[in-house]
Amino acid sequence: MVVMSSGSGGTRPGVGRPKKTALIVAQQIVEDISRRGNTVGDRLPPEHLMLEEYGVGRGTLRESLRYLELQGVIMLKPGPGGGPIVQQPDGGTLAATLSLLLQFENAPFSTIMEARAALEPSIARLATTRIDDAGLERLAENLRVAREQIGDQAVFSAQSERFHELIAWGSGNALFGYLFDALTGLIAGASMGITYPRRQRELTCDIHDEIYAAIADRDADAASRLMSVHIHEHTTYLEKRFHAALAQPIRWELDG
Description:
CATH class of the largest domain: Mainly Alpha
Number of strands: 4
Low-confidence stretches: 1-15
Oligomer: single chain
Number of helices: 11
CATH superfamily of the largest domain: GntR ligand-binding domain-like
Largest sheet: 2 strands, antiparallel
Structural class: mainly alpha
Strand order of the largest sheet: 1-2
CATH architecture of the largest domain: Up-down Bundle
Shape: elongated
Distance between the termini: 38 Å
Strand content: under 5%
């Protein structure tokens, strides 16, 4: 059965169809990882025990494990003593999925800046009430490294994006954290040719300092306002100097 989408009036293929057995087993494996309290590096039970536990054939189980490997949940280690080993999924998988979806929409890179302008002021506001001392220390260290490495374009750019990721995680909302990991991955994975002259880097450091101070002072209004100004000024710079790059369609990028 195909269910009509209430939003666009189109169809959503696959809704209402029974899930493949391999996907159901994959979900059960993840539930069991959580139930057992497995952590990164733990080995899952050997194949013959998993076949008995989940009551499926070898082909179905291996399809489930390959799917989980693609999602970053496990690593399949070959050879004796190998097998499925628990991993920590990260924003890379989400970035790949988002880039694939956005490519099919022919969405430009300006889409990312629009999303950031809408979200980041609210995220900064949340961070003022939820970030802990360790999070503030990570932000302060980020600012220090960015200032020290301001002459290195690549290092500075990485630290600048990291500042925004740290605030997203400091908001106490894991969805924002993973989303900004993914957005950073989308930008980093593209050859957009965007550069920042020394003066632009200095201005970025200055407003990052101000945003940090507002968050550390637990001043929600100031943090939100400064973040809004920062994203607006950054977008204006990109539109003036790198309009063609912002207009580029997002393309699916895969690591490796």
